[in-house]
Design goal:
- By secondary structure, this protein is an alpha/beta fold.
- It is about 40% helix and about 20% strand.
- The protein contains 14 helices and 14 strands.
């Protein structure tokens, strides 16, 4: 459990996980594995590999933390379980054809590191991907469901004027930002129960006696489907444009400051193998997907799951439900239950990968299911920002939910 606790003790935010990635490298090298830090253009990625030839499976490790909260999402558990699974497969690979790669993927929380790595070719020759995520409460799921998510940063530019002696000469950018915020709030009652909208005012002026000539709002858009995300993004864009027209100010939108996250397409054939191994260890794991409306989570693993067959099961680190992204959740990640989750998770992932390498029938079922679900998707072309795709917007009126 030393690796999990060491990562937890020194939390680092996304793309700055330099100590964490060195800790992983030193741990693996101490077990006799060669590592490479900084592969595919990201300084805090890591790669280790064993075996030879195909099929090729990637086990993913995350180790980024949250600003101000530390490991309140339990990525230390993800990392240690992935490393443990990779090491545990060494003996199995001595008698099997196939390659297993441990890939450390930075910035799940704030930057879409998996999408960055994918665009750099990190998964081009990978046949299957496995990872897990900590959870609290007695139940766990083999088929994890998530929401698609994207952000937009909107800047309103008006005209400054003396707020008392010449307000008529000004155009109030803050009024536009507040109108857009209220528009987003009103839109919430007309969206699907599984969809989400959150917003903050990021900028609103500097002096009370000056009409604000610049103000900003940041909106996060989530949906249970890629199509829903596209539709809701266009509706949000029209709210922003409408607020700008109302207040006679200019609007600048920056969609996708980091890559959008797509829903996870869990491979049931692969998840079924994991489920069997975890039940054998006494885990209360279910086959069905966790409901997005209940969890509302998003992950950049979704972007990989539409490129390569993948699973992202949950594993409990506490019998009591604790909200994620909190300090209490972080404490559970290094509890006795958290340590047990690392061991069980490592065994479950390793056994699942071994099944995949050993069983050609399983590999075929995994492949056929993936193709039936839509096959490989060109993620880079999938989501055009609404402010650059006017032809795709409805001519008038809100889009249908």
């Amino acid at each position: 459990m030393s690796l999990s606790r060491e990562i937890h003790e020194h939390p680092e935010i996304g793309f700055a996980e330099h100590r964490s990635v060195r800790t992983v490298a030193e741990f693996l090298e101490g077990q006799g594995f060669a590592t490479k830090i900084g592969e595919w253009g990201l300084s805090t990625s890591i790669l280790a590999q064993q075996g030879k030839g195909s099929p090729r499976v990637a086990i993913l490790a995350e180790y980024d933390a949250l600003p101000g909260v530390g490991h309140g999402c339990g990525h230390n558990v993800i990392c240690a379980a992935a490393v443990g699974a990779f090491i545990g497969l060494a003996q199995e690979l001595a008698s099997l054809d196939g390659t297993v790669r441990l890939i450390g993927t930075p910035a799940e929380e704030n930057g879409g590191g998996k999408e960055v790595l994918a665009r750099a070719g990190a998964f081009d020759d990978i046949d299957a991907i496995v990872m897990l995520h900590p959870f609290t409460g007695p139940e766990e799921v083999a088929n994890f469901a998530s929401l698609a998510v994207r952000d937009v940063e909107a800047t309103f530019r008006g005209t400054a004027a003396h707020a008392s002696s010449a307000p008529h000469e000004g155009r109030n950018a803050l009024d536009a930002a507040l109108a857009s915020y209220q528009g987003i709030a009103a839109l919430r009652q007309h969206i699907l129960a599984t969809d989400r909208l959150h917003a903050i005012v990021s900028e609103g002026g500097a002096a009370l006696n000056v009409v604000p000539d610049r103000a900003g709002i940041v909106v996060e858009v989530r949906s249970a489907s890629t199509e829903g995300l596209r539709d809701l993004s266009h509706r949000v864009q029209r709210v922003l444009e409408g607020a700008a027209h109302m207040m006679d100010v200019r609007l600048e939108t920056r969609w996708d400051p980091f890559p959008p996250y797509l829903p996870v397409r869990s491979n049931a054939a692969l998840a079924g193998q994991y489920l069997e191994h975890m039940r054998a260890r006494g885990r209360q794991i279910e086959t069905g997907s966790s409901a997005p409306s209940a969890g509302g989570w998003s992950t950049d693993l979704g972007n990989l799951s539409v490129r390569v067959p993948a699973i992202h099961p949950t594993i409990s680190i506490s019998p009591e439900a604790v909200p994620m992204h909190t300090e209490e959740f972080g404490r559970r990640a290094i509890s006795d239950a958290g340590d047990t989750a690392v061991i069980d998770g490592a065994i479950g992932l390793a056994a699942t990968v071994a099944d995949y390498l050993r069983d050609s029938d399983l590999r075929e079922r995994v492949r056929l299911e993936f193709e039936a679900a839509g096959g490989r998707i060109d993620v880079e072309r999938l989501l055009t920002p609404p402010d650059r795709d006017p032809a795709d917007r409805p001519a008038s009126g809100p889009s249908s939910c």
